[in-house]
Write a structure and sequence with these properties.
mainly alpha, three-stranded parallel sheet, 7 helices, 64% helix
C-alpha cells in the first residue's frame, strides 16, 4: 500500500482501534477518533491528546493495566465510542482545527532532529 492509500483507509473508517501511535495520530488528523491500546504513560500520545484538549481516559486503554485490558472493559469503551460517535468525532474535530497542522509540523521537525542526532 502507498502512503496515500493508507491515509485514505485511515480517513475512511468511523473509529480506529490501534496499538500504533502514528496510525492513531494520522486518523485523528483526518477527523477519525482513535482508541489507543498503549501504556497510559505514553508521553507522546498523552501530549498530543492534551494539545488537542482531549481527555486521555476517553482515548487510551492502558495495555499494562490488567483491569483495563479485560475484554468487557475494552468492549464497553469501544461500544461507548461507537454509541456516541457523532459527539466523539465532534470532540476530535474541535481539538484538531488548526492545531493539528502545527502539531504535525512540530512532530516531524522534532523526529527529524532526533533521528539526525543518532
Amino acid at each position: 500500500m502507498s502512503l496515500k492509500e493508507i491515509y485514505g483507509f485511515l480517513a475512511s473508517v468511523d473509529l480506529l482501534v490501534t496499538s500504533r501511535m502514528h496510525a492513531g495520530i494520522t486518523a485523528m488528523g483526518a477527523g477519525v477518533p482513535a482508541l489507543f491500546l498503549l501504556p497510559s504513560e505514553d508521553v507522546k500520545v498523552l501530549d498530543i491528546l492534551s494539545f488537542l484538549n482531549l481527555e486521555a481516559d476517553d482515548f487510551i486503554i492502558d495495555i499494562f493495566n490488567p483491569k483495563t485490558m479485560r475484554a468487557e472493559n475494552i468492549q464497553q469503551k469501544f461500544q461507548s465510542m461507537i454509541d456516541n460517535i457523532g459527539d466523539v468525532k465532534q470532540m476530535v474535530d474541535k481539538g484538531i482545527d488548526e492545531k493539528f497542522i502545527l502539531l504535525l509540523f512540530l512532530y516531524v521537525v522534532s523526529k527529524t532532529l532526533a533521528d539526525s542526532m543518532r
